[in-house]
Q: What sequence folds into this?
């Protein structure tokens, strides 16, 4: 049974004692000292390594205040550590695991640290906006953010070959609801798994961390990284959406990924209000009929944004002349377009069919079908002119409302 050394225990407790932004700063400094390419923002930090596997963890916890450094209790006989203030092992155990791998072993996987996971994967959402493709070779992702012992959760990724690969290292498949890879995997098109890091009773003060379970996962992740580094035949495991999960999260019933309970959750918002959902860009609760679906190049589903965000990004949003969909491009891509009124998306230009089975199952804004979508949005399937008319009407209404206040 592996137990905490005095040094590792102190490291873990110090990580738990940090604020969310403190964890980001700590990981930024650690990664900068060991990686050549590190990108740090207030919402996420990532580092590009030489092993095409990304390790993912989140810096936030559910607790409003960090635990007291003096209130940790470690039962060496049971190999369990806890704090009556709530240690936040979800996901400081994952942060510790990545720290251990990067510091103590000559391994350089990609590393992604996010914020706001407990509030709905906010940091991950901003990351996929900034990086519509992962900026390096990526074969798969491992999130270290799962309770229990040796669980492997794939969420809506249904790549059987990837599941077999992970199972070879001693993990067992379990079910889960949501984590950062629920957004990152479909956005970047690669398979991902969330692995146990040994905590139990998360989100409560009685939360405890089984240290030997944590070390066992760390050892297995190291074995996975060694395997990928040594065996160049390990493939890129593609993200394959699970039809049932797609319907549940994106389709029938019309909840949509951004209306899904838990995603973009804010204590101050009535997130269960019918006819409302959160803007993908700014996270503001907005009437669904005032949202606009935008697509990424080769994207399999759209993301709803509010009118304000559309106005802010208008120079990066272009409309395909053939399919009539609105696309969100990088500034560099948008500048290269000579005539925005006669632009064709890559999917239409290359004759590449989308994953029509997935799109058709995802009734609503993701399908781009005409009329009201599954979430009741009047914008669903509208062309450019119709959308612009609606935006002007909405802006006129806003101006009139403001005038009536005085």
A:
């Amino acid at each position: 049974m592996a137990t905490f050394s005095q040094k590792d225990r102190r490291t873990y407790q110090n990580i738990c004692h940090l604020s969310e932004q403190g964890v980001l700063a700590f990981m930024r400094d650690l990664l900068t000292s060991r990686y050549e390419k590190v990108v740090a923002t207030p919402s996420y930090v990532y580092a590009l390594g030489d092993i095409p596997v990304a390790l993912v963890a989140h810096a936030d916890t559910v607790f409003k205040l960090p635990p007291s450094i003096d209130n940790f209790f470690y039962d060496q006989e049971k190999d369990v550590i806890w704090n009556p203030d709530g240690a936040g092992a979800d996901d400081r155990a994952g942060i510790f695991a990545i720290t251990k791998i990067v510091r103590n072993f000559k391994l350089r996987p990609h590393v992604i640290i996010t914020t706001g996971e407990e509030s709905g994967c906010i940091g991950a959402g901003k990351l996929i906006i900034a990086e519509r493709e992962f900026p390096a070779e990526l074969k798969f992702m491992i999130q270290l953010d799962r309770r229990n012992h040796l669980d492997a959760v794939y969420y809506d990724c249904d790549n059987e070959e990837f599941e077999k690969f992970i199972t070879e290292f001693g993990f067992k498949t379990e079910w889960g609801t949501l984590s950062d890879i629920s957004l990152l995997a479909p956005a970047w098109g690669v398979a991902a798994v969330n692995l146990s890091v040994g905590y139990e009773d998360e989100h409560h003060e009685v939360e405890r961390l089984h240290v030997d379970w944590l070390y066992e996962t760390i050892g297995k992740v190291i074995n996975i990284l060694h395997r990928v580094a040594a065996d160049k035949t390990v493939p890129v495991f593609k993200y394959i959406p699970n039809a049932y999960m797609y319907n549940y999260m994106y389709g029938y019933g019309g909840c949509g990924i951004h209306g899904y309970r838990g995603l973009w959750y804010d204590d101050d918002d009535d997130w269960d209000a019918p006819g409302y959902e959160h803007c993908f860009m700014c996270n503001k609760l907005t009437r669904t009929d005032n949202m606009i679906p935008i697509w990424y190049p080769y994207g399999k589903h759209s993301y709803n944004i509010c009118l304000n965000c559309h106005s802010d990004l208008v120079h990066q949003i272009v409309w395909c002349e053939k399919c009539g969909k609105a696309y969100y491009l990088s500034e560099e891509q948008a500048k290269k377009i000579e005539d925005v009124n006669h632009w064709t998306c890559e999917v239409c230009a290359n004759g590449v069919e989308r994953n029509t089975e997935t799109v058709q199952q995802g009734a609503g804004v993701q399908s781009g079908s005409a009329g009201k979508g599954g979430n009741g949005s009047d914008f669903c399937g509208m062309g450019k002119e119709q959308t612009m008319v609606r935006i002007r009407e909405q802006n006129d209404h806003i101006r009139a409302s403001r005038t009536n206040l005085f």
